[in-house]
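DATA SHEET
Item: assembly model
Revision: 1
Owner: S.N.
Input lines:
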Amino acid sequence: MTTDALTKEFQAIVGNENVMVSEADRQSYSYDAAVLEPVVPALVLRPETTEALGKCVKLCNDNDRPLTVRGAGTNLSGGTIPDPRGGVVILTNSLNKILEINEQDLYAVVQPGVVTATFAAEVAKRGLFYPPDPGSQAVSTLGGNVAENAGGLRGLKYGVTKDYVMGVDFFDVDGGLVKSGSRTVKCVTGYNLGGLMIASEGTLGVFAEITLKLVPPPAAQKAMMAIYDNVDKASESVAAIIANKIVPCTLEFLDNATIRYVEDFCKAGLPTDAQAVLLIEVDGHPVQVEEDAAKVVELCKKVGASEVKMAEDAAQRDALWTARRAALPALARARPTTVLEDATVPRSKIPAMIKAINEIAAKYKLDIGTFGHAGDGNLHPTIMCDRRDKEEFHRVEAAVDEIFDVAISLKGTLSGEHGIGLAKSKWMEKETSRATIEYSRRMKKSIDPKSILNPGKIIAGRG
Amino acid sequence: MTTDALTKEFQAIVGNENVMVSEADRQSYSYDAAVLEPVVPALVLRPETTEALGKCVKLCNDNDRPLTVRGAGTNLSGGTIPDPRGGVVILTNSLNKILEINEQDLYAVVQPGVVTATFAAEVAKRGLFYPPDPGSQAVSTLGGNVAENAGGLRGLKYGVTKDYVMGVDFFDVDGGLVKSGSRTVKCVTGYNLGGLMIASEGTLGVFAEITLKLVPPPAAQKAMMAIYDNVDKASESVAAIIANKIVPCTLEFLDNATIRYVEDFCKAGLPTDAQAVLLIEVDGHPVQVEEDAAKVVELCKKVGASEVKMAEDAAQRDALWTARRAALPALARARPTTVLEDATVPRSKIPAMIKAINEIAAKYKLDIGTFGHAGDGNLHPTIMCDRRDKEEFHRVEAAVDEIFDVAISLKGTLSGEHGIGLAKSKWMEKETSRATIEYSRRMKKSIDPKSILNPGKIIAGRG
């Protein structure tokens, strides 16, 4: 069917106003937050009901049209870049209903297009807590969070999106509704298909409804900043805190470059002459929080922090986290292109990883700011560059290659929380195995024989 | 290849002493803890190395021999009953090495045949904690726990096996090693195949190595027993505790029948005239534990507990949990056959579920003792019967059918923690959908085209 004829069919399903065909509209959905070539989709759809969503999927499959579901497009690995073969983008932003928040049974049921921060706020109003807090939470959607298994600042204590998914109902490529998981804490009825959907980047099904676990919020929290004149001492502090059986909810690292860019960007009061800072928050019962905070201060000083500043009130605490959240935008405005990586290592390997990143930066004469979730071993080396400068970008690519090699040699992983998408599929086999790729491809092929569901992502690679 | 010829090939891989061919040996592996017809395997293998395990899998596939991997055979849904078409059983009990316990990075790497309790004890020696504690933990294996997504008593606060699986390396049906997950807290490299292995009952791969998350142990705990002269008040207490944002690590329910059988079995000091008891443990920081315990006592009394007895020391605490763990053996010795179900509902639906179970028991004139993980909504209605009495067993089957119908109508699930196996696959579609079964079958077929990996489990059903 021609795109024009197909347009009419889609209009009948979602309404004329929800089929976008103009060049300008389609351009808007040609890229995401990854540094990759844009691909303009043939059509953009915005279904307003779950039923319409299922019909759109079926119509795409019936007409051999690759489809890419898009939440807020904040993903960093090209997972929402449409397929060049007349790809269709399906937006979830009208599927944004919180269907249920169950206070007795501690779960919520949502449509995929609900914005993460909106959901967390609604949950908080009921006196409950949804911990996952990816950097893009203000605009990212829960469907996108599940499709990417989004992480965030609270991963160390509270885990990531995966740890909150109780069930996923999703459309198979033919529009059949597949149900997995339950509203119960325990469920082993059938394959863990909800688990399989997590981090599957839209390649195995289209989410209709997601059931998420909620928890009671911590009664108290306390944040602090430890300042170091030596990077190793900062990373040793991380190890010391964990070894002492303290699990902070957040344990973040900023190197000197990041500190300076953040200060320049938003005057957050960070010490620009420090080689590194750790931003730490402990939470829980008030007595435990006091004890843990005191212990963290003691440990950081013992390992060699020059100073540990305690946030004395909510305003000071907010200031610390605003500074941390400013890291990426601050680095991003330094140069035209920002390559943000998320190679991740077991947390005791952070000193080795930071050392390697600095050596790689020197070797390739690149400006790299490193910050991230030190407590998870999930660092974000951020390369400030200009993609139009081919010679420089070759060096960037070589540096990224080496960063991955080091992470894997330290028993870490290519991607802690950003996903594989288009950007990293060529490295997949290096970390896993040929058998892993083939197993994944066989599975994908059986579920999506015509390669309609967000093709090219994760396992496309080098054939 | 004939079984004799194949025997020689297997002997070359695992050694003569690890290939069992005698009738008596094979009989021992013809059944598991489910109430189902035994099936005698053609051969039983006990590989001693991961490499040999992989070769056994490949040899089975090359010779069209269905294989069933068996840990301790404690599963309750027929997941380890071999295939009647000359099935091979592969034992994991010689693959029982704890390869690493990493205290800095809070993970462990194990072979699949490590016994759960042995592992938990080794972890405890290092001052760490592995929370999942299925009822069979004294003999069950970690590989079996992952294959079944085993639950246990601590699910309410600490989750189930699923929540501790960081990675699984497994053999595909052709003996290729598939790697999924990582030693890092965060990992999104490729499909969540480790997640897919969870609860897959040996039908999608054969586990080689499992990476498990560890946590710091709670500093203190306190156990208590709340006694009720009315079942509804017990289940209302569960709701009241959760609604007050207290998350006990354990919150167990025993009905009057269970209490009487347990007392008769082991003189645990349970009140035989009570209609129900709740056994509750809170853990965490000592101050929090004191506060939570006091609050739980207050709530239980307010709702209508006639008495709440606090365990004053470790011996009294152990006695409570010994009594709880005696529930199944106590009920099991009452009659020749014990049908132990695990239909699970959102926890606020426990009063409705208990009421329905009692009505079903009366309707079918059956003796049903109900106990279980009330905090999870995961009850174990246990039907005491005699399978040889066909008339009675028809009533048992009708009762089980109705129990599942009620659980599903209450937005619950067929199985909270026992798995689908052979026993429940015919009910799968009732809870999920036709599309779910077909999606699962397509996936299974692509991964295991000749149906070698534990065939007939989960999705065999009614075609």
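QC remark: Chain A has 16 helices and 16 strands.
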